[in-house]
């Protein structure tokens, strides 16, 4: 009781001292003496204590101007110190155990929200997981940014793939072995197109064994039947440009028969079985069955671990150098598939580098070497890019807590890509005086793809903080962000240039998955580029060319292109009708349309009045003079060199103070990572 009375008296003294010379507004109005406190005694007795309030008086004090300026400087120094401290602070235990609430958003990819992204779809019991690393997921995020309303633009799930019921029917269609001449042609086509990046089988040995099968009538061995039918399917998909029947892909009957032979997993897998799985996984991409391909290469990986392909085997246990090199190259094909497809789907890699102890491929000094293998330098280049791909997935598109900032992780990846370019043999560089082989083009397309996926979150963040209405004095983007932006846009432009040249030369595969993926990924970046400072009219013209190529692939039966085409059409629609419509309208002479319905049977974009909206095309893409420009020269530009040569400790996150002029009300007190 005494303690309570003491506390009440102390509180009364504090309240009384807080209002010693002023009356509450009620006492002041009645012109009576006020006891002070809240409520005062008169208000308390009148039963209106909640109305007891005081006028806050702000005294005016004269100070020197120099003192005021010193306070401003001290405040700015304190703000900069707090920003630096937050950039380098390690996550606490609470942050590690509660990433949703405690993670430091200043170190995270701006594409990633606190919670994983799931999309409910009619007819499916489980919601679809959508990864921001996937290009289709990025396309949806871009549409949401352009539209300004996240909930109004849902994700478009991947539904254009060959279903299991179709494959089950084809598996019992009675497909037979082709003639020996056709079988040899299909096997040569399959291995010729897959190599050199993907070593699937020994070339000469595979053809020799095929000859023996036909000579001795050994058509019923299930393992060899599975391998060769998978090769027949792959050979057909690379041989045809138009199957003529909508919803089917060349080689489907062979594929369905081959896949029906592997329902029971072997306890003791063989090299032939692993080869068959890899061939089937590669063909699955042509059916747009991306998850099936991911699962098959996962099975191949685990079978490879069972037989020890991730280790070097001694000469005493495997004296044949061709067999040893075959083991090595088969393993690294599995590795490339795992890394590349994991990044494409936004899923984790299925084995860590620490568990791999096998040497890289080599060129053997053997008379039979060139009958079985191609130059190992192609394979090594793809392996190193695949390793960088896993780093991009683990550090850029991860919700883990990092002690390094996002830009510091960007710097490490770009340094790795720069080292890759420096280690590339001369004969794998793009040439200006002669035609570049398809495999060389593919290497540089994959390099550009890695650059784009590593940097594109930065571009989307810049776009999200761009003023919807163009102003006479556009703000200047800081040098670091300009270097990253330019590298990403340059890689996208170069990708579309190379794809256009491959298209005009007839070197592109209608049913391949990679070509359409490269076109789509680059087109998304150039759509963003058209709105950012430094964008050109040619960027939108290049997007028009990309749409023409994708729509032609769809017309010829490409399921992969069909899926991506609809995403790209929606992005263009959001660009024209979204919050940046005034910026788009300012670009005179540009057309942001889909192809004319007279040429391609695809759905039109509906305008606000519900009518089909078609705009004329801007014409063909002119790639003259840009055919062999090296994509990686952008890493040698002065701004990029400044970024790559900075000390890691000097790199900070996007600073609101650095970009205060970007023309948005989101900046005050809001981190750049905030989701729109």
Automatic annotation (TrEMBL):
Q: Which GO terms describe its cellular component?
A: nucleus
Q: What is its main location?
A: nucleus
What biological-process GO terms show up in the record?
Answer: DNA-templated transcription; positive regulation of transcription by RNA polymerase II
Residues forming the Zn(2)-C6 fungal-type domain are: 23-54
Keyword annotations of the record: DNA-binding, Metal-binding, Nucleus, Transcription, Transcription regulation
**What SMART domains does UniProt report for this protein, alphabetically?**
Fungal_trans, GAL4
Subcellular localization: Nucleus
> Under which name does UniProt file this protein?
Putative fungal-specific transcription factor
The organism named in the record is Aspergillus violaceofuscus (strain CBS 115571)
